[in-house]
Amino acid sequence: MKGSQAIAHKYARALYHSIEKSKSEFYMEILDNLSFSMENEEFKDFMMDPAVPDDQKIEFLNETFELDEVLKKFLKILFEKKRFQMIQLVSDSFKSVVYQENSILQVRCISAKELTEDDLNKIRDVLERKFNKSVHIFVEKNEELLAGVKLFFDSQLVDLTVKGELEKLLSQMLEGVRS
After folding, report:
1. For 146, left (φ over 0), alpha (ψ -120 to 50), or beta?
2. How many helices (H) and strands (E) does the chain have?
3. Closest CA to 4 of 57, 82, 100
4. Distance between CA atoms of residues 31 and 154, nearest Å
5. Are residue 127 and residue 72 in the same domain, yes or no?
6. DSSP E strands: which ranges in 53-176?
7. What pLDDT sits at residue 56?
8. Pair 110, 37 in one domain
């Protein structure tokens, strides 16, 4: 892990271990919303403004996102340690921690076209059987792919695109010629 990611991961683990596990989804949603909000320049400028007291920032966030006491304390620590700019990394790390602690496999699926629920269920079923874990699929559409999907999980890539299959076939043919 890189420096900032490692620090964000420590904060995410600390948050996870200080909450009721039944509220994990709630915390993921709030952190996602905070992360998304940081893409807004006005919001980001306000949150990063050293002239605005931390308590005022926390109060604003509480009114906007309806925070519980644990999140208020957590965000106060981020502000005090000058780490709030890392909220996007913390949010991503928190999801990873939740999924890891609950044996859920995160899968990033890049597809040439919109996938139906049936397509996603087939992919999910295969992965759940193979890894004996629950699977959560994040879908991205990339029209540059001709057809098929790429699956990313646990630092692995499974390329099931037309281009990927053609490259495998070419590689096998070249190996046959070299032998």
Report:
1. alpha
2. 8, 4
3. 82
4. 22
5. no
6. 104-111, 134-141, 149-153, 156-159
7. 92
8. no
